[in-house]
Structures are given as structure tokens and as C-alpha cells.
Amino acid sequence: MAWPEPAPTPQVPFMIVLLRGKCYLRMQYVPAETTTIEHATAIFTAASESALAVFRK
Questions:
Q1: Residue 44 in contact with residue 25, Cβ under 8 Å?
Q2: How many domains, the chain?
Q3: pTM of this prediction exceeds 0.85
Q4: Is residue 6, in this structure, part of any structural domain at all?
Q5: Which residues, in sequence order, are bridge partners of residue 25?
Q6: pLDDT in single tens digits along all 57 residues of the chain
Q7: CA-CA distance, 35 to 51, in Å (whole number)?
Q8: How far, in Å, CA of 22 to CA of 4, rounded?
């Protein structure tokens, strides 16, 4: 998870939850930079696709 600059600190909460067939991303949005949310979205998409691949077997 190599975050683009300005990167959030390790203390910023970041959580991906799979619950009742839905995937959720919870994250404190600091700093308010477009690159941060784009990177978080890319991680979320990759994790969701990986979960779908596992459950389709």
C-alpha cells in the first residue's frame, strides 16, 4: 500500500469489510487530497475483485 504523497500517517484508520455479501471501505479522509482517495479506491477495487475470485470457486 505505497501511498502517494502526501500520504496518510500509519495512525489513519483504514478498513475493508466484507459483510452480508457487500464490501465496504472505511477510511479517515486526511489529508483531503484527490490522489489519496484515488489510491484508496484502487486498493478497495483490487480487494473486492480478489474476494469475488475466492467466492466464485
A1: yes
A2: 1
A3: no
A4: no
A5: 16
A6: 577 676 667 777 788 888 887 888 888 876 667 877 888 888 889 888 888 888 776
A7: 24
A8: 27
